[in-house]
Write a structure and sequence with these properties.
By secondary structure, the protein is of the alpha/beta class. It has five domains: about 5-160, P-loop containing nucleotide triphosphate hydrolases (Rossmann fold, 3-Layer(aba) Sandwich), CATH 3.40.50.300; about 175-400, P-loop containing nucleotide triphosphate hydrolases (Rossmann fold, 3-Layer(aba) Sandwich), CATH 3.40.50; about 410-470, no CATH class; about 475-535, no CATH class; about 545-600, no CATH class. Helices cover about 50% and strands about 10% of the residues. The protein has 25 helices and 15 strands. The chain has helices at about 10-20, 40-45, 60-70, 85-90, 90-95, 115-125, 150-155, 165-170, 185-195, 205-225, 225-235, 250-265, 280-290, 330-335, 360-380, 395-405, 410-425, 440-450, 460-465, 475-490, 510-520, 525-535, 545-560, 570-585, 590-600; strands at about 30-35, 55-60, 80-85, 100-105, 130-135, 140, 145-150, 160, 175-180, 240-245, 270-275, 300-305, 320, 350-355, 390. Strands 11-12-10-13-14-9-15 form a seven-stranded parallel sheet, with helices on both faces. The longest helix has 21 residues, at about 205-225. GO terms for molecular function: ATP binding; DNA binding; hydrolase activity. InterPro entries: EF_Hand_1_Ca_BS, Helicase/UvrB_N, Helicase_assoc, Helicase_ATP-bd, Helicase_C-like, P-loop_NTPase.
């Protein structure tokens, strides 16, 4: 494919125009778009503007780079493809020789990693006049103090922000059929049996409860097992599935189990393929999976991490999620593997977990509803909420377990007395702050559910109210931090709580950043926006104010540690700011006042 002849989807054509316009004002431009929306073609189109100039294209893996190369069909010249890992091992002199006019940082959120980040820093320092394009579906490093890499690398210049839910609602991506289910109930059965064993029920009651649990287990294995779920939702035309596992040991185990699910579900045959870092045949088996068109069997590609991001296979019928994750980035990257712009079929997403707590569909449903509300306001909605094909096979099972659990002899008044003891000891009922009690926390959560459904008697509501019981845990948590923010402002006169600094035992800075991020994405309720406005939180922060905020953060660090050697992982934004001050000093862009202030804390301008 010639770079000059690339046709873009309308949404990407709009983004491309925004990129070109933005480059007339700044060198740094970022694009945040969901997996499957065609970011690869967008990169290639931008490369066409630098046909005979040096282009450095960076990505986390060779799979992504090879995909770019194959689509460009060798028609581009002066293009250097390399992984972030390779760049990190290059010397200063080797990087200086690159002389790039265009630098593309694909999956740029990965630049937040210590080693890879240092390599990118050296490249940007050596090419201060190069145009930069960053692409990512997920710029926030949620497990790294929620660092927003679009702010750190691109000064917040994001021309398009299109997440997976937005893309589905606007009709850019097809709506997947999302099936949330349990592939094993063993963990839940074991938990329930332990509760029965330690309960206050009589021995005869316990024996009956054990029998009922065993009968429920047999029933569910027949009706809600993985093969039954697959048989219910797949047809004989499916050809390719990607299965995400949590580690290599898990992959080896599940690569023996999952094929049986498919065979018992009625498919003609299966072929198991694997791709992970230590596996020597990864490239060969991935190529077979991607290019196979006439294999009559269902191809099952098992992966650990390597296919989370960037790589796309056009004719995947679905994905199976077997690894619980706390990272929204990883979660959306994985379900995005099956979704492709321009496709007219609904891909299948099987969210198979083995306990009730790790059900990702709840987040997906919430994001879809928020995206719909936003799209309706912007008149961009194509899909209506009732059309979302989300099938929850877990809730019914959960209710069956709860029916048995409600017969276990931990009566309401016994649990209430335990809660009262907790309240008298700690002065509140916010579990997680002091003396965490998981059973009591679960009981309290259940009371909130019953209360919302009108199933809790007035006498019980009154008893819980006497303990200042928290009926809305999320709202209470927000109010607690809001009041803490007011105290911080009274103490320091600003809202510049560092994301890495605790205030009264709480990570207030992280909460502050989250409010700004949610407001920026239109996800903060009007009531909360107004409350923050009342205390001056949304006051426009100009360059001077932002500079002073970072300076004060550095001064505090220096006063405590006697140096400026901040750790990139802990102080990502400050680390980048320090580097920019050195660049600005070399380029004569710092004011005399700024230089004087930095000298006051013995700042090293040369390093």
């Amino acid at each position: 494919m010639s770079l000059k002849n690339i046709d873009l989807y309308p949404h990407n054509q709009e983004t491309y125009t925004k990129i070109i316009d933005a480059w007339t004002e700044t060198n740094k431009v970022a694009v945040v778009q969901a997996t499957g929306t065609g970011k690869t073609y967008l990169i290639l189109k931008c490369m066409s503007n630098f046909m005979f100039q040096t282009k450095v294209i960076l990505a986390p893996s060779h799979y992504i780079l090879n995909q770019l190369k194959s689509l460009s069909d060798g028609s581009e010249v002066n293009t250097i493809y390399m992984t972030y890992s390779k760049l990190s091992f290059m010397s200063h002199s080797e990087i200086s020789e690159l002389q790039a006019s265009l630098i593309v940082l694909d999956e740029f959120h990965r630049c937040g990693a210590d080693v890879w980040g240092r390599g990118v820093e050296r490249l940007l320092e050596a090419n201060p006049n190069a145009k930069m394009l960053g692409t990512s579906a997920t710029p926030i490093r949620f497990l790294d103090n929620e660092r927003d890499m679009s702010d750190e690398l691109f000064d917040g210049k994001v021309v398009t922000n299109l997440n997976l839910a937005d893309a589905v609602v606007q009709g850019i991506l097809p709506m997947p059929k999302y099936i949330s289910s349990l592939f094993s109930i063993e963990d839940e059965v074991n938990k329930l049996n332990m509760k029965i064993q330690s309960s206050r029920n009589s021995d005869s009651d316990k024996q009956q409860l054990f029998k009922d649990v065993e009968a429920l287990k047999r029933k569910l294995n027949k009706s809600k097992g993985a093969e039954q779920i697959l048989h219910k939702h797949i047809d004989r035309n499916v050809k390719k599935f990607i299965i995400f596992c949590k580690d290599i040991k898990h992959l080896v185990e599940m690569s023996k189990i999952v094929p049986k699910w498919f065979l018992n579900a009625g498919v003609n045959g299966v072929k198991v393929l694997k791709v992970y870092t230590e596996y020597l045949n990864s490239d060969k088996e991935f190529d077979y999976f991607r290019n196979s068109k006439d294999d009559d069997r269902v191809l099952l590609l098992f992966s650990v991490d390597m296919l989370n991001e960037g790589v796309h296979v056009e004719d995947v019928d679905g994905v199976i999620l077997l690894r619980p994750t706390n990272s929204p980035n990883v979660y959306y990257q994985q379900i995005g593997r099956a979704i492709q712009a321009g496709s007219n079929k609904s891909p299948l997403i099987f969210d198979f977990v083995n306990n009730f707590e790790n059900v990702g569909s709840k987040q997906f449903i919430m994001d879809l509803k928020e995206a719909t509300e936003k799209a309706v306001r912007m008149k961009k909605a194509v899909v209506d909420v009732p059309q979302f094909l989300i099938i929850d096979e877990v809730q019914e099972v959960k209710e069956m377990f709860e029916a048995i659990e409600n017969r276990i002899g931990t009566d309401w008044h016994f649990s209430y007395e335990k809660l009262k003891e907790y309240y008298e000891k700690y002065g509140h009922t916010r579990f997680g702050e002091d003396g965490y009690d998981s059973d009591l926390s679960i009981w309290a959560s259940r009371q909130r559910t019953y209360y919302k459904k009108g199933m809790l008697g007035d006498d019980k509501v009154a008893k819980l109210d006497s303990l200042d019981f928290v009926w809305d845990a999320l709202e209470d948590n927000w109010t607690e931090y809001y009041e803490l923010l007011i105290e911080y402002k009274e103490a320091y006169g600003n809202f510049s709580a560092s994301a890495n600094k605790e205030f009264k035992g709480k990570n207030l800075g992280n909460w502050v950043n989250k409010q700004r991020f949610r407001h920026k994405k239109g996800k903060l309720s009007d009531d909360r926006v107004q409350k923050l406005d009342e205390i001056g939180f949304w006051s426009v922060k100009g360059y001077r104010h932002k500079w002073e905020d970072r300076y004060q953060e550095l001064k505090e660090f220096y006063d405590i540690n006697g140096n400026h050697s901040v750790n990139r992982r802990e102080y990502g934004a400050l680390y980048v700011w320090i580097s920019r001050q050195r660049d600005a000093y070399k380029q004569g862009k710092l004011s005399d006042e700024e230089i004087s202030k930095l000298k006051d804390i013995k700042f090293q301008f040369e390093k």
